[in-house]
Amino acid sequence: MKLLQLAPVLSLAIALSAHAAHFGDRAALVDQIDQGFEVTLADAEEALADAQTDLADAQAELADAQANGGDVAAAQAKVDAAQADVDAANANATAAQANIGGATALVDQMSDDQVTALNRSLNNAVHNGSAPLVFDTALLQRIIDEDFGKQQVQALTQGMELAARFESHANRADAKGHAKQAEKMRERGAALQNKFFARLDDATADAARDASREAAREAKRAAKEAAREAARDAHGHGKP
Prior knowledge:
Elements: H1 2-23, H2 26-68, H3 72-99, H4 103-108, H5 112-127, H6 137-145, H7 150-175, H8 179-197, H9 205-237
């Protein structure tokens, strides 16, 4: 009888131990961070391709202006601006490429508690549909250099997750041609992320609870906005 009574407790202990071991998995954390790096690289390469296309169009306009007596100065100004955009996009793509494969060295410098806290937070992001979160190396280095604790890691990732959600809404608005709405969404996401990042210097439990509550409220607001957007679209599609 005693064995039968202990079995559920033992099973729970084993399950909790396995769960904890998963969150302490450094390789899993590296994979999550690398996924974010890859997203950044893909976005940077797409932006570079778009900038190169714009440059080619500007160069064609310049050639046409030179051949047909057009406004060469204005066309040259467009080429110069487009070239500057290409240079900037190329620099971003190069920086993003340099990050690929760099997560391991950073994670190796983190404490076990930091790895566990990050894995837990990123696991939440996966369940909420916000993964992968896009870190940059400076942010990861800050976790190491400033010895972030659980509450600070939580505030960091919650801010990033909220920004990712609003970016998702912004992308949908862009796809529908609602540029102003998309800009508003991105501004809101950036403001929320900055608000959470400002709390990184306060590692108290109260601050963490406040951040968690605010993240939940903002997530609900984002969900309601998405629902309203879907309803508007459905109503619009229903019009003759």
